């Protein structure tokens, strides 16, 4: 059983680099992960397919867009990880 088994996590900027590594780690630890992306659609969808996570196209620098993503019932995200500097 992973440290985040049955927990939900939202990672901002999770489609590439450090953000993608964070997504992979939380998934490996049992979390249900939703991550945002803005410009790397192919990378985001590939990562989502690889890990079983959910990719949401959202501008992480747009406060209202992030709030909308967090409020979606499907995100259920008590853990919040900003992997991208705004």
Describe the structure in your own words:
By secondary structure, the protein is of the alpha/beta class. It has a single domain (8-82), classed as Rossmann fold (3-Layer(aba) Sandwich), CATH 3.40.50. 37% of the residues lie in helices and 22% in strands. The protein has 3 helices and 4 strands, in the order βαβαβαβ. It has a 4-stranded parallel β-sheet with strand order 3-2-1-4, with helices on both faces. Strand 1, helix 1 (17-28) and strand 2 form a beta-alpha-beta unit. The longest helix is centred in the first third of the chain and has 12 residues, at 17-28. The radius of gyration is 11 Å and the shape is globular. It starts with 7 loop residues before the first strand and ends with a strand. The mean pLDDT is 84.
Overall mean pLDDT:
84
Identify the CATH class: Alpha Beta
CATH topology: Rossmann fold
Radius of gyration over C-alpha positions, nearest whole angstrom: 11 Å
| Most strands sheet | 4 strands, parallel
Query: What is the helical fraction, as a range of percent?
Result: 25-40%
Structure annotation, total helices: 3
Count of beta strands: 4
Strand order of the largest sheet: 3-2-1-4
User: Multimeric state of these chains?
Assistant: single chain
Output the helix-strand order. EHEHEHE
Poorly predicted regions are none
Q: What's the CATH architecture name?
A: 3-Layer(aba) Sandwich
Structural class: alpha/beta
Domain count, please report it. 1
Shape: globular
